Amino acid sequence: MTGFPFPQHTLESAPPASRRIMAAMARQRGQVPAGVARLASSPELLDGFLKASGLFEGSSLDPVAREVVILTIATRNGCHICVAMHTAKLVALGAGADLVAALRDQRPLPDERLAAVQEFTLDVITTAGAVSQESLGAFLGRGYTARNALEVVLGIGAHTMSTLANRMTGAPLDDELRPFAWEEPAAVT
């Protein structure tokens, strides 16, 4: 392969089907985020991710629990953009530094109810959805519902798209996310 196949698209260089999404992002944020500019090479992926992410944002899981799902996936998949972006969201939501640090370091969470979300998310991924009755029972036992269990699957699906695509395209971190930058922990041998 010659050359880098994932350009940092502008409104002028992007495929026509991506331009509407990019223009909306530019209006909303004042610029097109780098990840969006790279994902614009596939209007279908970009639109699919944004729709699935929007559906997850509208789910019945509370905002902090949704961010736990997202950061669990982002750290597991090593997506520096997603970790930084969702760290910023957790901080904006008023999450404690201990919760944020545990998520970023891939450690068990200090809050038992949110730890159940983290553990269940990892179990759904590890078992490809074939969670045990014990795992599901532990999640439900913390006050979550069967609907919430399926919403975790939605969050995993949506944010697996973005984490994998961001890594594949080598999308850089936007300047406003630099204060929340993350380095993937070294593998334990």
Describe the structure.
- This protein has 189 residues and is an all-alpha fold.
- The protein has a domain at 60-180: AhpD-like.
- Helix content is 62%, strand content 0%.
- The chain is globular and about 50 Å long.
- The chain starts with 15 loop residues before the first helix and ends in a 20-residue tail after the last helix.
Keywords:
9 helices; mainly alpha; AhpD-like; 189 residues
In short:
With 189 residues, the chain is mostly helical. It contains nine helices and no strands. It has helices spanning 16-29, 34-39, 43-57, 63-77, 80-92, 97-104, 112-126, 133-140, 146-169.
Number of strands: 0
Calculate the terminal CA-CA distance, rounded to whole Å: 33 Å
As a percent range, the share of strand residues is: under 5%
CATH homologous superfamily label of the domain at 60-180: AhpD-like
CATH topology of the domain at 60-180: the name is: AhpD-like
The gyration radius over C-alpha positions equals: 17 Å
Mind telling me the CATH class of the domain at 60-180?
A: Mainly Alpha
Q: Helical element count?
A: 9
Second-tier CATH architecture of the domain at 60-180:
Up-down Bundle
Set out the fold topology.
Blueprint: H1 16-29, H2 34-39, H3 43-57, H4 63-77, H5 80-92, H6 97-104, H7 112-126, H8 133-140, H9 146-169
